[in-house]
Amino acid sequence: MNEMADSKGRSLAMGKAYEEKHVHEVYQQIAQHFSTTRYKAYIGCGNGKYLAVNPNIFIVASDRSEALARIAAKHQPHSTIVADVLNLPHPYSFFDFAMSIAVVHHLSTRTRRVQAISEILQTLKVPNDTDQGGRALIYVWALEQKTSRRGWDKGDQQDVMVPWVMRGSSVAESAGHETQTFHRYYHLYEENELERDIQSAGGFVLESGYEKDNWWAIAVRAPENDESISATKLL
Amino acid sequence: MSLQKVLGKTMQLDDRKSSGEKTDRLRRSIDSATTIPNREVDDLCEAFVMRVITINFITCAVKACKASASSFPLHFQDVEVEQQEVHFEPAFIQNLLPRIDWTGLRTTAIELGFPTVPDIKPNNDTLDEPMLRDLHRLLLETQVVEGKLVCGNCGHEYSIKDGIANFLLPDHLGSSPSLET
Ligand SMILES: [Zn+2]
């Protein structure tokens, strides 16, 4: 498997001097904090205790916003981090599946959107003879949504600021304004645009479609012009 | 898992996100819960956690570091660790095992004071229940609540606060194209 090869590659580069610096010294530095280690059994609160919905899947969820990451942590109690889609903290050629929901459309230039897609694709396992590779599901808002209350449609301006009204109701908030309006940037994708961006990002679209005001696509890394595939095979 | 199921899930998630009011309500309830002075209540029902297994799936966010072996795994520093009981599912650990970078896990385990991880990754013949329970305890039940993750290549420090690690990079380290090509 790829990751076995990966771990072989890594273990070759590691060694005694490496462990001395990064294991033992670090261990010394953190040893004092073990006294604060707490051991707990949580009783009666389901959140977190029953991890697995499906024992074949482990999910690492990330979001640029810490507040949203915390919400995700409540709903998918596997692991949640705060990260930027342009600089994801995951090893390349690693995951079986990646999902990006309502993220790419918040990037404001095509270059950035293509780079975000490329960054997502690069975390996927590369297809080879024994492995079909990782797949990514990418989901973006569509320009064509004339039945929605926003009412945009083909031919309209694609780069828009969408108001988002926040109603205050807690004691702290009612001391100030009752409602606050924020504007969020969206790039509304037109038909076939997501597929084009995926292609430019080095991906190959397996399946794509339209669902409820959104365009979606499932993609793999395109193996043709990928140097790492031969590197993987060599390992 | 079928793609249809994944899509089904996607729709639900999106519904939740597009409902600003609902999201807002959820966010505020979380904000207020995390500011309750009694940390015990907090711990019981608002458990945001950085499980040890996560570290095995993460590397430095700096692109130049990803090619370097010393960027993986990131190193724990100044950590506050908690044990939280998680329902034991042997199949989950068994399925996870092929995906684990064993050398990386051993490094992490030593940093967290877990000396019992064997030198060689167990296979189906050597994997018995005590070993599965040890791994369950280390990978899922051991959680880092506060501390830092440090890249062995560039030295950048990522903070962990209230069980959430933050991998956002300062401008000079991140890749952030601004010009159209
Ligand atoms: Zn680094």
The whole-angstrom Rg of chain B is 19 Å
Proportion of residues in β-strands of chain A: 15-25%
Q: Say how many strands of chain A there are.
A: 9
The residue-averaged pLDDT of chain B reads 76
Give the name of the CATH superfamily of chain A. Vaccinia Virus protein VP39
- Helix content bin of chain B: 25-40%
Question: At the first level of CATH, what is the class of the largest domain in chain B?
Answer: Mainly Beta
Mean pLDDT of chain A: 70
Second-tier CATH architecture of the largest domain in chain B? Single Sheet
Biggest chain contact: A-B, 95 and 90 residues
- Biggest sheet features of chain A: 4 strands, mixed
Describe this structure as you would to a colleague:
The complex is a heterodimer of chains A (235) and B (181). The longest helix of chain A has 16 residues, at 16-31. The termini of chain A are close together. Chain A is built from 7 helices and 9 strands, in the order ααββαββαββαβαββα. In chain A, strand 4 (97-101), helix 4 and strand 5 (135-141) form a beta-alpha-beta unit. Helices cover 30% and strands 24% of the residues of chain A. Chain A is α/β, with parallel strands linked by helices. Chain B folds into 2 domains: 3-46, no CATH class; 50-173, N-terminal domain of TfIIb (Single Sheet). Chain B contains 7 helices and 5 strands, in the order αααβαβαααβββ. In chain B, strands 1, 2, 3, 4 and 5 form a 5-stranded antiparallel β-sheet that branches. In chain B, strand 4 and strand 5 (164-166) form a beta hairpin. Chain B starts with a helix and ends in a 15-residue tail after the last strand. Chains A and B meet through helix 1, helix 2, strand 1, helix 3 and strand 3 of A and helix 1, helix 2, helix 3, strand 1 and strand 2 of B. The complex binds zinc ion. Zinc ion binds at residues 60, 62, 65, 71, 151, 153-154, 156 of chain B. Zinc ion is lined by residues 60, 62, 65, 71, 151, 153-154, 156 of chain B. Chain B: Residues 1-26 are annotated as: Disordered. Chain B: Keywords: Cytoplasm, Nucleus. Chain B: Belongs to the TRM112 family. Chain B: It is found in: Cytoplasm; Nucleus.
